[in-house]
Amino acid sequence: MEVKKALDIALKKCNGEIIPIQVNEFDFSYLYNFATEAIALYKSFFDLNNKSLLTVGSSCDQVIEAYAAGASKVRVVDINYFTKYYFYLKKAALLTLTLDDYLNYLSYNRTGYKATNGTNSDILSVNLFEKIKPCLKSLNNDAYVFWTKLYDSFSGKEIFEKMFFTFQELTDDEKRKCITYLSSNKEYKNAREKIKDKDPFFNCSNLMQYNARYYYDNIWLSNVLEYLSLFECNHITQKVVNCTRDNGKALICYLFAPGFKGSLEHIESKYNLEAIDITGYHAVDQQQVLIYTKRGNTNNKK
Ligand SMILES: C[S@@+](CC[C@H](N)C(=O)[O-])C[C@H]1O[C@@H](n2cnc3c(N)ncnc32)[C@H](O)[C@@H]1O
Q1: Which atom of ligand 1 is nearest to the CA of 78?
Q2: In this structure, which residue's CA is closest to atom 1 in ligand 1?
Q3: Does 17 reside within a domain?
Q4: What pLDDT shows up at residue 131?
Q5: Beta strand 244-255 with 52-55: parallel, antiparallel or unpaired?
Q6: Is 252 near ligand 1, meaning CB less than 6 Å away?
Q7: Structural domain contains residue 302
Q8: What mean pLDDT do residues 268-286 have?
Q9: What's the whole-model pTM score?
Q10: Closest ligand 1 atom, CA of 57?
Q11: Which of the chain's ends, N or C, has fewer CB atoms near its CB within 10 Å?
């Protein structure tokens, strides 16, 4: 979405206006500051080195993790209007700040949403924003305009509380366990090196309407299908199957509650998905990923 429109919606959100959504649709106009999935574990099932990835975004940690693992080309498809602008804010922070400052700048409650001991007063702090601003400007002028205009009218805390899912955040310890580039200074520097000259392509679009024009070695759909009807799950899964390259893999759904698969039960057997248990890598009880592997040789080239 072009910056003028995205900024208009963001300013409305920060002013407390409700953004209209269609009946039966969830409000995906919020951002996730960090991924809530155990990417560190599931990425080991995928071959990312010098390979392509199509992924949904929002926190954009999936993008950073993929580049850190050597991905050559990444495309982000996300219904959220702000994903692209958040990516550049994160990239500028990653390239400029230390790991601790990065966590301080982007974490709302570093001890997790279950804790009751208050929020991080440095969240999106203007002092840290001033540090990353020159880098942000050099990376992407639209993102620079977007964030600068928001900071002109609102504090970092106000921006965060109106635009982000404040209650869906892992603790620092869980983040280190679930997201590789946050696990140590060495991994953080590796991500910084690998991402500095790379940018994904962005499509601000609903996956239902998205028209995939290329094949991908890897596809990650996060837990999007958990929100959808059987018809929608089928439609999107078929689309993913069609654009997965031979011997490539797709994460069809990350399951936060594998005991309640609903429509996904049908998708799992219809597409012969592998359900992999990743319990123990995350604070929140049992979790699973549903993975599709494209077998055969159809010579897909696009
Ligand atoms: C469902 S959220 C979950 C985030 C996740 N827990 C994580 O760790 O990043 C993933 C992203 O999917 C996007 N999304 C949800 N439904 C979508 C759809 N139908 N088409 C495209 N993107 C969608 C949301 O905007 C959000 O950015």
Answers
A1: 22
A2: 224
A3: no
A4: 98
A5: unpaired
A6: no
A7: no
A8: 81
A9: 0.95
A10: 27
A11: C
